[in-house]
Design brief:
By secondary structure, the chain is α/β, with parallel strands linked by helices. The chain folds into 2 domains: 3-161, Alpha/beta knot, CATH 3.40.1280; 183-249, tRNA(m1g37)methyltransferase, domain 2 (Trp Operon Repressor, Chain A), CATH 1.10.1270.20. It is 39% helix and 17% strand. It contains 9 helices and 9 strands. The strands form 3 sheets. A 5-stranded parallel sheet has the order 2-1-6-5-7, sandwiched between helices. Strands 3-4 form a two-stranded antiparallel sheet. The chain has a two-stranded antiparallel ribbon with strand order 8-9. It binds adenine (ADE). Residues 86-88, 130-132, 134-136, 139, 142 line the site of adenine. The site of adenine has 11 residues, from strand 5.
């Protein structure tokens, strides 16, 4: 099945160019994702295709008028569409949201610019999404992030082994990877990885994938189901930490 995505923005090249490369570019060439990027000015008003105006009540900057955005959504929305408005105040985008969106058949992604949108268009969206707690100059880079993360989850875009539950863990809880050369600036590769023992490699990776987030990002672990084997590894790592703390204290 093809995932269709319509992006509406003021700077189409900012979305079109990055999403023509690499995995999203190949997904489009292969017809797994059909991405269309539209210039909001197409729905702009008057001879100048105006899309913005000064805010009522005064203040700096311009606000996107409601009519062009409403015009775009009215034209692009179908019965099967999910309409997403990008906004720094929206629901925070995550791998779980990416998976939800990858399962839809048609996304319309609207990218505001300037100081924001007229508040009366918010009801026209099904979902407001933020890619993180910072303010971009506009929604275009956020659209690139969302489309990239969603595209790689569309069946057939990349090997299933890289997107299944196990390696979703791999994506967020990445174990350390090594390649040639065997020694780099005096640092060697963990011997287990060149031992040829597949089972030991698997166990080492599982434990290594938990070790770093346990120290740096415990929230990533807290938010997901943990298998029995992972729980045993976590207990072992925590026990090591306790031993080290006792040694430091001694
Ligand atoms: N527009 C401006 N900042 C944004 C953010 N953090 N996420 C989504 N859209 C935005």
């Amino acid at each position: 099945m093809t995932l269709e995505i319509d992006v509406v923005c003021l700077f189409p090249a900012m979305v079109e160019t990055p999403l023509s490369e690499s995995i999203p570019g190949r997904a489009r060439e292969r017809g797994l994702v059909e991405l269309r990027v539209h210039d909001l000015r197409r729905w702009g008003l008057g001879r100048h295709r105006s899309v913005d105006a000064t805010p009522y009540g005064g203040g700096a900057g311009m606000v996107l008028r409601p009519e062009p955005i409403a015009g775009a959504i009215d034209e692009l929305r179908r019965a099967d569409s999910t309409v997403v408005l990008l906004d720094p105040g929206g629901r925070v985008f995550s791998q779980a949201v990416a998976a939800e969106l990858a399962a839809r058949s048609h996304l319309v992604i609207v990218c505001p610019r300037y100081e924001g949108v007229d508040d009366r268009v918010r009801d026209l969206a099904d979902l407001e999404l933020s890619i993180g707690d910072y303010v971009l100059s506009g929604g275009e880079p956020a659209a690139v992030v969302v489309v990239d993360a969603v595209t790689r989850l569309v069946p057939g875009v990349i090997e299933a082994a890289s997107t299944d539950e196990e390696s979703f863990a791999r994506g967020l809880l990445e174990y350390p990877q090594y390649t040639r050369p065997p020694e780099f600036r005096g640092r060697t590769v963990p011997p287990v990885l060149v031992s040829g023992h597949h089972e030991e490699v698997r166990r080492w990776r599982l434990e290594a994938s938990l070790r770093r987030p346990l120290a740096r990002r415990p929230d990533l672990l807290a938010g997901r189901a943990v298998s029995d084997e992972e729980r045993r590894s976590l207990d072992r790592i925590r026990a090591e930490g306790d031993e080290a703390a006792e040694e430091d204290g001694a």
